Amino acid sequence: MTERRTPSIAQVLWKLMRNQPIRYGFALVVWTLIWAMPVLVGLVIAYFFDELASGIEVDTVVLVVVATLAYAIARTVMIFLGMRNHASLLFRAASTMRRNLLLRLYELPGAETLDETPGELVSRFRDDVDHIVEPFDLTVDLAGASVAGVVAFTILFSIDPVITLVISLPVAVVALVANRTGGLVRRYRRHAREATEAITGYLGETFSATQSIKVAGAEETMLLRFQDLNDVRKDMMVRDRTLTETMYAVYRNTINIGTGLILLMAAGRLAATGDAGISIGQFALFVFLLEYVSDAAYFVGVFIARAKQGSVSVDRLTKSLRGEPWSRAFAKTDLHLDGAPPQPEISERSTDPFRSLRVHGLTYHYPGSVNGIEDVDLEIRAGEFVVVTGRIGSGKTTLLRAILGLLPAESGSIVWNDAAVDDPESSMVPPRSAYTPQVPKLFSMTLEDNLVLGDTVPKHLVDESIYIATMQRDIDQMPEGLETMVGPRGVRLSGGQVQRSAGARMLTREPQLLVLDDVSSALDVETEQIMWTRLFNARRDITALVVSHRHAALARADRVIVMHDGRVAATGSAEELQESSERFRAIWEGVLQPVSGR
Hints:
Distance between the termini: 39 Å
Structural class: alpha/beta
CATH topology of the largest domain: ABC transporter transmembrane region fold
């Protein structure tokens, strides 16, 4: 039996409860007691007023005072324990969802694009998770209020069945209103969340493209677009909030009106003694317990509304799983909150020196397209400098990503040192290989943190990597040196500095195989030549697989692989290919014509 792609809110809440059975069970017991304990106060009040009517004694007053103090102390302790446990319960529920979603995103192939913008994903991680936790939070209050309401109803029924049955009328009205407005609640909440997500995504993209906006002189139009989105969000949020508050007002006022009518009926039957009416103590008990019956009805309505709103966030959250079962987002996971956090696993340096990498019949096509690579064979031996070249769209980048497992190959094999690589995404990483993409990404932290990425890297290795990447002069000119904050995505650095920083980051991993995708495209010819010279002088045993069309790389290459329409069109040294390959001669002479795809 296959699992539903999108679950009901009830399934999600049940899953969250089962993830923390002890904490949730404790919360359920404690909050039920907290809600039900005031019933004891009502009984004490009834006893006090009945005694007062018949002539109260000093011992009775003392008993009432002692009982009230004991109740206050006990309830305070219960509330403290309940809040302490509840904070942990809700935090773990929210963190579990966020961690599972983050792990799922990390599992996706590295070159696979997301349907959502980073801002939209942040909105789902932050707001949608919170909106699922809200009904989960209310379940214990709903249970406690319901138990207290049932107990109070039973006591009131024993006092006066007719009046007590009338209490059920406002409860029925609340339940009917909550049920009939469920679809409207879901629709308004969905529109509000989509409008908020649009704003968050727009802001994220705007902040990462400030230079492009300024160069295009588009500040005013971008602000107008932001205003339009904000107006839509304001309208949707006002509708959502107005509907929610209106429903709450209907619930509360319906119950209050019903309570008033019931009290008028009870007051008309009030009598000091006798079987014809109710005593003053019973009337006091009636007034006191009636609130708990009405609160139970109110919480039913609030919970239904929150559950409807939470179901919208469940739908949105499960879409981010990209085909995985919905339970993946809510599965129990170790958050490592108890005890010392686990230390990151540092890959041990391979004791098997790199000898060769062989690729046979490697094939990958982009979904819904014929573009990609087809039946590619190549071999890289230790110490070689192999350059992949070709026209724009010929499949160069796709080839590198498929070898590294960033794109899932449809067929073909990858062999490292005569051993098949079954999972290249996990295997083709440091210390085996390291990769620098054509458009590398830096994080909004210091330059040094971007180079080491949380790893413990010896200073001499960092200095050597900076030297090879020709970054030392740039760093010397930065007022804070390696402590310079590079800004979001390295926006404070030039394109060449970003590429060389990414190259230095790759070198700090000391990989046996370097994989570089046109990393010199933002460098001048002299800087590129210096970089290659320093690399092979400092690390003589290094092996490199490089995408490039620059003379500095092609002339230095031990072997050049020419790609065309996703296939290997020619292989040889630059000198050999100038004689034998027309396509390579066009590249060498700088005649590069783009083709569609790849």
